[in-house]
Design a protein that fits this description.
Elements lengths: L7 E5 L5 H11 L3 E4 L6 H18 L3 E4 L2 H6 L4 E4 L6 H8 L4 E6 L2 H8 L5 E4 L16 H10 L4 E3 L8 H6 L4 E4 L1 H4 L4 H16 L1
Parallel strand pairs: 1-2, 1-8, 2-3, 3-4, 4-5, 5-6, 6-7, 7-8
């Protein structure tokens, strides 16, 4: 998949029903899957990461690892996503190669502008709302994400509280790429929830 064509990006941790939840979410419309778990249990990350990588290959969606480029190499992932305080984009490229997907989180215009000077495949902007997945970080507001997308020469994925109720207004504001966490990870029906996101997106475009 060309990253520019991806609309829905799921970040998920080591939940009990990981493979079933991801499979249903992808069948509902998720385009990219990132394993994002802050645990130090590397054995579990390797074990479940291998299974998730295999599932993503079967479903033909990119598999990304959060924060740890070495783990991404070990799992033969399609790429890695790093934050401002993680290893550099250059280090990620050295480990994963020029063809890998490498994403970078940004939370302010200065970070975004600096990110455009790297070889990152895509950047993220947000969180537009404060979210429990980013404890202690204030929301940037929608304006930051719309500014970032207008300034960018590559996809900008919006983070922070994106759901089926607010995605329409975000699409109408010109945004096209979205990261979801709780909308899928806390849903009793991930496939239906993913489909609701896709339907809200398409309705806003229409």
């Amino acid at each position: 998949m060309n990253i520019s064509d991806a609309r829905w990006y799921l970040c998920i941790g080591l939940v009990d029903d990981l493979l079933t939840r991801v499979e249903h979410a992808v069948r509902g419309g998720i385009d990219i899957v990132q394993l994002r778990d802050k645990t130090d249990n590397l054995a579990a990350l390797h074990r479940q990461g291998r299974d998730l990588r295999a599932l993503c290959r079967d479903l033909d969606v990119p598999f990304i690892v959060n924060d740890r480029p070495e783990l991404a190499v070990d799992l033969d992932a399609d790429g890695v996503h790093v934050g401002q305080d993680d290893v550099s984009i250059e280090r990620c490229r050295l480990l994963l190669g020029s063809a890998a997907i490498v994403g970078l989180s940004t939370h302010a215009p200065s970070e975004f502008t600096a990110g455009l000077d790297t070889s990152a495949t895509y950047l993220s902007a947000g969180p537009i709302e404060a979210t429990p997945t980013k404890p202690g970080r204030e929301g940037t507001g929608r304006q930051y994400a719309t500014w970032a997308q207008a300034e960018s020469d590559r996809p900008v994925f919006v983070t922070g509280g994106v759901n089926e109720r607010n995605v329409g207004e975000l699409v109408r504001a010109g945004l096209r790429h979205f990261v979801v966490v709780r909308a899928i990870t806390e849903s009793p029906d991930p496939q239906r929830s993913a489909r609701a996101l896709v339907d809200a997106y398409e309705a806003a475009l229409a």
